[in-house]
Amino acid sequence: MSVTQPVHPDNASKDRLRLWLRMLKASRMIETQLRENLRAEFQSTLPRFDVMAALSRYQDGLKMSQLSDVLRVSNGNVTGIVDRLADDGCVVRVPVPGDRRASLVRLTKRGHEEFAVQAKAHEDWINDILSEFSANQAVTVSGHLDALVTALEGKAP
Amino acid sequence: MSVTQPVHPDNASKDRLRLWLRMLKASRMIETQLRENLRAEFQSTLPRFDVMAALSRYQDGLKMSQLSDVLRVSNGNVTGIVDRLADDGCVVRVPVPGDRRASLVRLTKRGHEEFAVQAKAHEDWINDILSEFSANQAVTVSGHLDALVTALEGKAP
DNA sequence: AGATTATACTTGAAGTCTAAAATATTTTTA
DNA sequence: TAAAAATATTTTAGACTTCAAGTATAATCT
């Protein structure tokens, strides 16, 4: 009498690998598309948009290190992006009273207006790109990914 | 008489946006993790790994232009990555008989060995990172993403 | 054949990204 | 309080990236 046993005991590993490769491919394609749209319509870039989006969520402003934390890009990187946004008058660096090392980065009025327009366009682009997913599917997969992100954050906080 | 109508007629748009933001976040976290692992364990990088993975799938070797095609990175970019891999003795440029412009890039014996180890580690890392997903879930979500990728490829070929 | 066009690749400029070193400024410790 | 440790940010070095221009070679046209 034989015991029923899968030929590939750890097939799950391959399935997960495939999932990752698909996810990577999809993300890159979407990113490329968004990058193109941002450049064509607003002469802007994804990193700039990301920074503005973060600042838009935190009306009181964020310190450089908090920004790089939220955006998960390196510290030194944020410097350049914020520099350029400041040049364009979209953000300002506000000194933090009592700590001369730090400064808060905040959206200017112009930055807010600019971002409002871009955010709307961005949502429309995504809605179009992801039309493949129904609202229900979107919610379901979001849930999985959220759990994944939470798990990852728990591993190396 | 009032008609029953949802307050947010295009809620799906928000759901899809959330899906994208989660996907982006998850992808970036995973990429960062992989990058770190590759650097710490193999003193290598993601682009290098990608090139070796491609060459591993095409045992007969790939021309530079084919490589840049498969990897979807620019032509000039591949030159540098292959240069460095060649310096490390992981790949060689083999002249194509009958066409002195082109050369085939192939993994060396050392490159093959190196990649075998890295690929195994890579799969294990992913299996660990994505342990949140069951094999079934992985397959299901893969399916959605695949459909998405196909749809995207159909839009701008 | 000789001139044009196309292909394969490399080079160079300009910019982005990460990780790590350097700087400046608190905060903590002995 | 002086020294050490921690924090916030910038600077730097080097890999990666694209795009445009350049070089060499091959294929095509007249």
Automatic annotation (TrEMBL), chains A, B:
InterPro entries for this protein = HTH_MarR-typ, MarR/SlyA-like, WH-like_DNA-bd_sf, WH_DNA-bd_sf
Enumerate the PROSITE patterns for this protein. Answer: HTH_MARR_2
Q: Which domain of life is it from?
A: Bacteria
Question: Could you tell me which residue ranges the HTH marR-type domain spans?
Answer: 16-150
A Pfam family that this protein carries is MarR_2
- Transmembrane segment boundaries: none
Q: What is this protein called?
A: MarR family transcriptional regulator
Q: Which organism is it from?
A: Parasulfitobacter algicola
